Amino acid sequence: MEKKTVDVIIPVYRPGKEFGELLRRLEKQEHRPEKILVMNTGRENWNEEWEKCPILEVHHLEQKDFDHGGTRKTGAVLSDADILVFMTQDALPADKKLIGNLIRPLEEEKTGAAYARQLPKEDCRFLECYTRSFNYPSESHIRNAADIPSCGIKTYFCSNVCAAYDREVYEKLGGFVDHAIFNEDMIYAGNLVKKGYAIAYAADAKVYHSHNYSALQQFHRNFDLGVSQAEHPEIFANVPSEGEGIRLVKKSLAYLVKTGHIWLIPQLVIQSGAKYAGYFLGKRYWKLPHRLVMACTMSPWYWKQK
Hints:
Layout: E1 6-13, H1 17-27, E2 35-41, E3 56-61, H2 70-77, E4 83-87, E5 92-93, H3 98-103, E6 111-119, H4 126-135, E7 141-143, H5 148-151, E8 162-166, H6 167-173, H7 184-194, E9 198-208, H8 215-230, H9 233-236, H10 242-259, H11 265-282, H12 290-296, H13 300-305
Parallel strand pairs: 1-2, 1-4, 2-3, 6-9
Antiparallel strand pairs: 4-8, 5-9, 6-8, 7-9
């Protein structure tokens, strides 16, 4: 079979030293990308040393022009590769086989997207490590519309922290939405499933990626998640996600008790409450005064563009 060409597209904002390591690891992949297309917000934060990477191509944009969906869509237009791999600036390939393992499921007929396993970083807190293993288990799977009754919203799960898309299918479906506060990957994935395609989870394609969010940060993040779902009822209206959140809380509680980390239960309660409160308000954002919306969101720029 002819080797598929791959471009990696990465939106970045104020990238740090870790970004240089990401470029080095991508350049050393066994299935080497043709190009690494970087969509950088804010030229003043860019380190020109990174341009020594021979496969890097950087495009600068201003903060007012950034959009989770639109910026990635622009990056896709700049690529002519067979497969589009989207990553975030804070994800690090775990080995040299990431790209090859990530794109392999796309060889299956009607599989239009694949996403990688996210492993916790060294500084990841105990509870967040469990969340990583809950959302990104060690077993691969492929899901399509037939899985909705049993898997619910997890059928649409896909993460642009590290995900690959068949270009032909991507263009056929129109790509990412032009304007998205957040969750552009699952909006596309939901549309993908509704059009008869499948999404693969490639557990052998691994990146290091985790965050130690505070309860307030979780609130803001889940508010924007709720907004994204409310703005796309054609995808999410009949696939409630609250049940999956409750399942995570129950599993996390059982895990804390089993491992003897009962002193972390208050943290679990506070974090879970913040997540739900943010999500609940985000799903009803149109009922809220603008000042309250701006206090709840983590993306004030989005509301200025509306």
